[in-house]
């Protein structure tokens, strides 16, 4: 565009094939690998060109990754922003360069950038509902009596902020349920294990562990066993994502439930690109639907897990 500004959000001209940028924030767990595989598979199915970058869990690198896509003049950017604030400059720079941005998987801070204005839309799960569903299951499983340790996802990431809100608000209504401690485990298995081991020292009376993702739950299970506890018996573990290792932990009785957070963004992302190019008015938030897994349905759902 000749710098004369552009529509807000920038338009996308309909073409047979697109040059699509996908800015991934990390590849440090099965969820992220499944998301990347889904996007790459859909791009190649459609014969679109994919400019893929991996920010290795760094907000600064992800900003420069998006800047490189802008320089390569991609038609549209799929962005999974590591945190709600770090990628704001990149979103606004893409807009100034008249390149539409579609947020997938994680959202940005709506006081700093708006859907259908600075970026096209956010495609992602309802993280508040995910936290609430875990809490509701926990209330049933414990009869409303629990001493809880919460392992939080990456500080500042929308899934971490909202999964905390959904769970904590629901638990607040139960006088017999107390959150002993809540700490960042960065959505990472080993960090989750270490944080759990430390918190267990301070709170040996814990009866429930709520992890914002399965990776940290698996780490927590390892820490509990190392301390002589019996996950699934004296401590109930619950998390979110629906990865294979968590479904297997449910099948073997070490985990109670995991609420799915589908990583399969390929089909919906490219369908949204087509709709946007075709002039369809898109919602500010395209909600991804999620299942919940327990011992009743974990085994049958293993094949479509990740
Ligand atoms: C959720 C996604 C989260 C997953 C984690 O959409 O952003 O990031 O729940 C992943 O496993 O690290």
Automatic annotation (TrEMBL):
Swiss-Prot/TrEMBL keywords: Signal
GO CC list: cell envelope
Coiled coil region boundaries: none
One Pfam family of this chain: Peripla_BP_4
Gene3D superfamilies for the chain: 3.40.50.2300
InterPro entries, A to Z: Peripla_BP_I (IPR028082), SBP_2_dom (IPR025997)
GO molecular function: carbohydrate binding
Subcellular locations according to the entry: Cell envelope
PROSITE patterns per UniProt: PROKAR_LIPOPROTEIN
All copies of domain Periplasmic binding protein, residue ranges: 20-280
Main localization (coarse): other
Family listed: Belongs to the bacterial solute-binding protein 2 family.
Name of the featured protein: Sugar ABC transporter substrate-binding protein
């Amino acid at each position: 565009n000749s710098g004369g500004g552009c529509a807000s959000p920038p338009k996308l001209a309909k073409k047979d094939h697109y040059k699509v940028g996908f800015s991934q924030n990390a590849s440090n767990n099965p969820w992220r690998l499944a998301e990347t595989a889904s996007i790459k598979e859909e791009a190649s199915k459609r014969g679109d060109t994919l400019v893929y970058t991996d920010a290795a869990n760094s907000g600064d690198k992800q900003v420069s990754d998006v800047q490189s896509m802008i320089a390569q003049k991609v038609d549209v950017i799929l962005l999974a922003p590591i945190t709600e604030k770090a990628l704001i400059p990149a979103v606004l720079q893409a807009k100034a360069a008249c390149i539409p941005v579609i947020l997938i998987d994680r959202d940005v801070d709506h006081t700093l950038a708006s859907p259908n204005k600075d970026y096209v839309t956010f495609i992602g799960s309802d993280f508040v509902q995910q936290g609430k569903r875990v809490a509701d299951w926990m209330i049933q499983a414990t009869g409303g009596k629990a001493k809880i340790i919460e392992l939080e996802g990456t500080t500042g990431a929308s899934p971490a902020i909202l999964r905390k809100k959904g769970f904590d608000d629901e638990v607040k209504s139960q006088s017999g349920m107390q959150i002993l401690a809540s700490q960042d485990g960065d959505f990472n298995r080993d960090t989750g294990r270490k944080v759990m081991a430390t918190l267990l020292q301070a709170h040996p009376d814990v009866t429930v562990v709520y992890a914002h993702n399965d990776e940290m739950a698996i780490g927590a299970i390892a820490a509990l066993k190392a301390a002589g506890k019996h996950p699934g018996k004296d401590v109930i573990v619950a998390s979110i994502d629906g990865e294979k290792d968590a479904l297997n932990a449910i099948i073997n009785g070490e985990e109670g439930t995991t609420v799915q957070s589908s990583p399969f963004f390929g089909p919906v992302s490219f369908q949204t690109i087509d709709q946007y190019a075709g002039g369809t008015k898109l919602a500010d938030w395209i909600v991804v639907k999620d299942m919940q897994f327990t011992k009743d349905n974990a085994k049958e759902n293993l094949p479509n897990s990740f």
